[in-house]
Amino acid sequence: xxxxxxxxxxxxxxxxxxxxxxxxxxxxxxxxxxxxxxxxxxxxxxxxxxxxxxxxxxxxxxxxxxxxxxxxxxxxxxxxxxxxxxxxxxxxxxxxxxxxx
Length: 101
Description:
This protein has 101 residues and is mostly helical.
């Protein structure tokens, strides 16, 4: 039995299928056959569309909440770089890490 490769669907394709399911013109089985996906997947995309539809109209306020704080991330990167340098030099002095890179 050959293994079927996993398909990755674009966001626009998922939206098109979910909107078609939301319209209710066709049954889930008919939509699944038309778009060549499993009926459970159609139901899942429809559920996701309904859950996230309100986010479209909330405005830019929610976008700022989802963006990470760059100052905190840069500080974390700097701290980790210092720790890596310190541990690398300590291991080199102890003879556990060769000085060649």
